[in-house]
Amino acid sequence: MFSSFGLRTILKSSVGVLRESSALYPAVSVRPWSCCASALLSGPAVSKGVFAVPPPVRHYARVAKKKKTGPESQLSDLPPTMVKMEYASVPLAQTTDDLVKRLLSLELASHKEKLQLKKEQLIAKVQRDENDRNSVEVKVAVLTARIRNYQEHLQKHHKDKANKRRMLMAIDRRKKLLKNLRLVRFDTFERVCEQLGITYTFPPEYYRRATRRWLAKKEFCIKVFKALQKQKAEQKMKQQLSNTETKEAKAPEAQT
Length: 256
Known about the structure:
This protein is mainly α. It has helices at 2-24, 32-42, 98-104, 111-126, 136-156, 161-184, 186-196, 212-255. Helix content is 61%, strand content 0%. Residues 24-48 have low confidence and may be disordered.
């Protein structure tokens, strides 16, 4: 009985303390656990008083990164309304309805067809006549279109080693053609570079790392070269002396 009486007095005193605190801090409710739960669920609202709960941290989304814009494609100057190359000479393709024109135009053409049309445009700029298909200028134009196509492909797929190797082989082939064209016909070389937008760079000078073995070999070769030159000079002198002796021997015989 004493224990129950003690519990009752403790509960009454605690209720009195809570009433006094509510009178002092009217924003705080009698049941603090309900206040905390409502504050956590409400979110941005901040309660004032003893049991104030900070607002939840907002995790905002990151700003979207801008995509890097690379150089324009060589096919960007082809209008989508242009008729395909194989239908350009057909007069009926120009008078058909809009649906057929879309099917015959570059709007629905494949990348291969567009690349072929670009090759023909570059060939038309540098070819000697209408039937020229095998000159050096035409070969340079075809290789230029192919190299630019490889460069655009490798910008998107930089791990494509096979196409990178093909591109380097095409670049080496074009360098050889331009080098020979520059030596034979310089005016044609300048015209081709200007029409196709090619910047010709001279090959680097020969460079070799000077190792001790290479220096010793070079010194030995120089010694051998000088020795041979000296030997040839001595043989030439002996030959000249023998020729003069024979001439002197023949001179008195001719006088007699």
